[in-house]
Amino acid sequence: MVVEGELLWRPSAAFAKRSNISRFQAWLLNHRGLVFDDYEALWQWSVDDLEAFWSAMWEYFDVCSDVPYESVLQGEGVSGVRWFTGARVNYAEHLLRYEAEAASNEIAFYHSAETRPLDTLTWHEVGDRVRRLATGLRELGIRPGDSVVSYMPNVWETAVAMLACISIGAVWSAAAPEFGAKTILDRFRQISPKLIFVTDGYSFGGRIFDRDEEVAEIVEGLPSLETVVRLDFLGLSKRNLPVRTMEYAALIDRPTIAREEFAFERVASDHPLWVLFSSGTTGLPKAIVHGHAGMIVEHYKVIMLHCNLSCSTTMFFYSTTGWMMWNIVVAALIAGSSAVLYDGSPTHGGVDMLWRMAADSRTTFFGASPTLVQIMEKEGVRPRERFDLSALEAVMVGGSPSTPATFAWFYENVKRDLWLTSQSGGTEFCSGLATGVPTLPVRAGEIQARALGTDLAVWDDDRQSLLDRTGELVVLKPMPSMPLYFWGDEGGTLYHDSYFSAIPGVWRHGDLAKITREGGVYVYGRSDSTLNRHGVRIGSAEIYSVLEQVAGIRDSLVICCELPDGNYYMPLFVQLAVGVSPEDVTAQVIARALREEASPRHVPDEVYYVPEIPYTLTGKKMEVPVRKLMMGAAANVVASRDAMANPTALDWFAAFSAQPEIKVKMQSRTLA
């Protein structure tokens, strides 16, 4: 049995030498006179001298700007700083940059869906479609700063739409079509979109889901909309909509536009690039805004130095369009790498379907969540026995913490000579905080290192830095890809309260983690009440907002617990209205409401009926204390009764978590 920290792989001298990070270190020697004995020394320099490191990123990757930047960094502290002021850049221009060098047959996108066979688009085809669609958007009146949103599947049309939108300076935001109308409106209403891309439906697990009704409700609920662009994805019937409606195919159907005839809209360094939604535990999902310059340098860093992608690689990571990992997959283009897009169930046509696609696309960098690994393990999948994976060099496991057993599965069933990287970051950065390094060894369950330019630490409750001990994961210095702000958050109060209020002046990420003396990182799960479902984080507020509309439910509380095997357990506790019984509001009724109004990911593992939901004196549901109870902590440790509005409400949960069957389920993993 593999144990945490066990050595599983070392890079060969040739693999390490040809890595992008080794080339960068050689450049630092030749251009800056800097020599580092090992990665840890390089990382230390990168956080000790932020301006020197990030200016090196800008110069090394030759970022295109109308004018030179005035300063790398302005401001003090972790939040509120400005990066590369004075520069005028465009993120999409950098993702499409390799088109100028690519041969006519070089592939930018491999793409497929349950209803579409695997196909390809060359760099020149992608560039041409982006320019044509961007020109169409300009003709429709889309201007820099306008919001454009997408309710589309993970297909090439969505990737091209994002690149076209960003190329003209508009602000992009996307959500997956599996989400119900209410969940979409909770997001998109906040940013008042001018145009929306929509699909007629999607397929998952062989089932067709018609989205005509949801699209109509979304359009009706967005009064700011001027235009709907509709993708005929499945050929389903479509109703008339109350705003100007165009077909995607018609909008993009125009003469070819040469590269030299198209002007990217170069915008200020902190011009909003996109809005990613990260769900909080109360209220609406947080509308996180990132900037062009910050994301350019961050993605050059993480895609090329930490993922080691280049013009000779192909990247795949299983994701939907509503998760930041979809942005990362498209961002593979910044390295000249091919990207693989797939829409549908990861097990459609067999539990080893993703490996078949990896073999067919000659994927070199494969990504999936630990949950998918567990599915394959249970089904006895052994990809190396069925598929030609000779092109595969690296695997990234992300979205949730990986166990030593997850690491071991890849070496036993996929490939012996494999750079396996588990990475951890978040929507807030659209990148990794703890990442892979191709020159370092792989140890079971360990994320290889802290990312360059990321001053990551683990603190105890007394703000003391910990090594080889579990504590709170924090970021001590600013990063270019930190949020510019939350859309509509006047004065930045919500942004501050979300990340800087718990530990003043420090970014508290909400993860329990450990950093070793050698610089490796272990993440053990969420320390706050964010929910993790199959590698995608969702907010408890999204579940509550649906349940509030279910007749007979008075209140509810949901938590998510990490299990020792790397899986997750998400129970829902429901308080019924007076006179209502569980037979009136069954678990099936609750599941159906959540599946239809939110998404399948919002459906809990089990439903329990409780007499009362515990609250603090300030009116907050006590999700974290209940989660800690479930994970084995004592009731007198998790909460002070003096701080509770209804102290006896916690008694039921204490008794519930003490039941033998619940203790077995939790396997006594404690947070104390």
Automatic annotation (TrEMBL):
Keywords: ATP-binding, Ligase, Nucleotide-binding. Its EC number is 6.2.1.16. InterPro entries: Acac_CoA_synth (IPR005914), ACAS_N (IPR032387), AMP-bd_C_sf (IPR045851), AMP-binding_CS (IPR020845), AMP-dep_synth/lig_dom (IPR000873), ANL_N_sf (IPR042099). GO terms for molecular function: acetoacetate-CoA ligase activity. Residues 39-94 form the Acetyl-coenzyme A synthetase N-terminal domain. It is an enzyme of class 6 (ligase). SUPFAM superfamilies: Acetyl-CoA synthetase-like (SSF56801). The keyword Plastid does not apply. The keyword ATP-binding applies. It holds the Pfam family ACAS_N. It comes from the Bacteria. Residues 103-478 form the AMP-dependent synthetase/ligase domain. Belongs to the ATP-dependent AMP-binding enzyme family. This is Acetoacetyl-CoA synthetase. It comes from Sphingobium xenophagum.
